[in-house]
Amino acid sequence: MKTVIDAHNISKTFNPDTIPVLAVNNVHLHLERGEFTSLVGPSGSGKTTLLNLLGGLDKPDKGSILINGVDITKLSANALIDFRLNNIGFVFQSFNLIPVLTARENVELIMQLQHKDKAKIDERVATLFQQIGLEDKMDSRPAQLSGGQQQRVAVARALASKPQFVLADEPTANLDSKSAGNLLDIMAKLNQEENITFIFSTHDVRVIERARRVVTLVDGKIHSDTAEVDTKHLKEN
């Protein structure tokens, strides 16, 4: 298996000069291509912070994060922006689609920033909207789409650049059960058929039950890392 992420002894403290909060505490995490992994834990456990560190949205106070052998903690701000654009896809809880753009344009934008030619963009967009089952909604704006449809467009946008992996922060939190199930079906199919790597930060048992690996965080540390999903325990927390 190909190593996608290798995080060594990373820590992150917020408010160091006032009331320090150690959000991530000396974490080591190794992830391979094709994983379908959930980061779980109670509120304040550090799972979203860890996801943000792995995605280069935040920088650890210490430690290293290697993505395909590149230590992103050593990149300049501009180099990190370019690296994220070409290597990492993001799916956010609040969708984060640009409201004045159509669904198609939201997905195209990532590839335009990569300076792809129009023919390749058109081909990729058609494929992605077929995969998410929204070919008939390509020219709709976000406000004309349901929450579930918006999140599916967000998944297409995350995949547009053909990233090394996709980070999804609570992707089902604002969705009803049917929409969440549809979204998870799409991501699981992409994972299984195209070997796309997904890493979730979630407290949603529906997501956790689909994961093949569950990393549990408590007080910023990895409490357990297992392929065995203890659903009863997770529901209680």
Q: Which terms summarize this structure?
A:
alpha/beta; 237 residues; single chain; 4-stranded antiparallel β-sheet; globular; 8 helices
For the biggest β-sheet, the strand order reads 6-7-8-3-9-10
Strand content: 25-35%
Going by helix content, strand content and strand pairing, the class is: alpha/beta
Terminal CA distance reads: 33 Å
Share of residues in helices: 25-40%
Count of individual helical segments: 8
Number of strands: 10
Unreliable segments of 5+ consecutive residues: 228-237
What does this protein look like?
37% of the residues lie in helices and 26% in strands. It has 237 residues and is an alpha/beta fold. The strands form two sheets. Strands 6-7-8-3-9-10 form a six-stranded mixed beta sheet, sandwiched between helices. Strand 7, helix 6 and strand 8 (198-201) form a beta-alpha-beta unit. Helix 5 (147-159) runs parallel beside helix 6 (177-194). It is globular and about 50 Å long. It starts with a strand and ends with a helix. The model is unreliable at 228-237 (pLDDT under 50).
SSE order and pairing:
Blueprint: E1 3-14, E2 21-32, E3 36-40, H1 47-54, E4 62-67, E5 70-71, H2 77-87, E6 88-91, H3 103-113, H4 118-131, H5 147-159, E7 165-169, H6 177-194, E8 198-201, H7 205-210, E9 213-218, E10 221-226, H8 231-236
